[in-house]
Write a structure and sequence with these properties.
Blueprint lengths: L12 H16 L13 E6 L5 H12 L3 E6 L11 H11 L2 E5 L3 H10 L4 E5 L5 H15 L7 E5 L5 H13 L2 E5 L8 H4 L5 E3 L3 H4 L5 E4 L11 H8 L6 H4 L7 E4 L11 H4 L7 H19 L2
Parallel strand pairs: 1-2, 1-3, 3-4, 5-6, 5-8, 6-7, 8-9
């Protein structure tokens, strides 16, 4: 039976450890090992949103696993001109061995997975970004040696963003302590916090910073929210990750960001470019390794 990765709800803790183990091996032995589980296989990369890291890491990853990546601009596909998602899923299942999709509607990705007979991997929707959070957790594991209840992560900004949503699912899966610092207008979804005492909302950014191991933020105006720019820039301004927050955190606290970053907005330049605090480029590199592990495990 085929398996998809649409959100972190699709993974068990054993799955997560298996992904980390394989990703670490692929990273350590890159360009040294002959590991081609996708040899003879084609993977479709459907993109409705512009991308740097996601597209490059998936295209390179498919190639390094021996497969053939096929980039598909959703706006130039028939699904962009009225063909149903279900029909698209059935047709692509006859041609491809797996689908990676980066788009707006999470419901569309769920329908694509439901109708396809091949694995579907969510490379980003407006609601969830599981591959990014897998890379984040791998990075935390590299620096802290573990991802569990002893780790405290604080996310600042839009508490309803795909990053915040996915981090909360990661906290539910691993037990790590998660605080979302956001204004009331964009507080995290109650259903993602319900029944999870290790996850909380804290509107006071200074209080949220107490004892933090990892600070995380994202751009204040994501793709699709451009018409809300003025409002969002105003309400999120108190939630910038900066040096003042690090003074409240643990001594060796680190900074994470899914990128691209806007210095002077969601993060100060001093934090973003601090080589002792900022680990964003290690985090970005880990997109490649963790996604290779996911594809190797799912696409058979």
């Amino acid at each position: 039976m085929k398996k998809d990765l649409l959100t972190l709800r699709d993974l068990t803790l054993d799955d997560l450890h298996g992904i980390f183990e394989l990703a670490a091996k692929l990273k350590a032995e890159r360009n040294k090992m002959n590991y081609t589980p996708l040899a003879g296989k084609s993977v479709g990369l459907i993109f409705a949103k512009s991308s740097t890291r996601t597209r490059v890491s998936f295209e390179v990853g498919v190639g390094e696993l021996g497969g053939r990546p096929l980039y598909l601009d959703q706006s130039r596909m028939q699904v962009g001109r009225g063909e149903t998602v279900a029909d698209t899923a059935k047709v692509l299942s006859r041609y491809l061995h797996g689908i990676v999709i980066r788009t707006f509607s999470h419901a569309d990705v769920e329908e694509l997975a439901r109708e396809a007979s091949i694995p579907v991997i969510n490379a980003l929707t407006d609601e969830y970004h599981p591959c990014q959070i897998l890379a984040d957790m791998l990075t935390i594991k590299e620096y802290s040696g573990r991802v569990d209840k002893s780790i405290r992560v604080a996310f600042y900004g839009d508490g309803r963003s795909n990053i915040a949503n996915s981090l909360m699912l990661a906290a539910r899966l691993t037990g790590m302590e998660m605080v979302v610092s956001a204004p009331a207008e964009e507080r995290p979804a109650e259903e993602l916090m319900a029944g999870a005492p290790n996850i909380c909302w804290e509107p006071d950014p200074l209080k949220a910073a107490e004892g933090v191991d990892y600070f995380y933020t994202d751009v204040w105006v994501s793709m699709g929210f451009e018409d809300e720019k003025e409002r969002r820039m105003k309400i999120f301004r108190p939630y910038q990750v900066n040096e003042a927050l690090f003074e409240r955190a643990r001594p060796n606290a680190k900074f994470l960001h899914c990128l691209p970053a806007h210095r002077g907005e969601e993060v100060s330049a001093g934090v973003m470019d601090d080589p002792k605090r900022s680990i964003v480029f290690d985090e970005a590199e880990n997109r490649l390794h963790v996604q290779k592990a996911v594809m190797a495990r799912l696409i058979k």
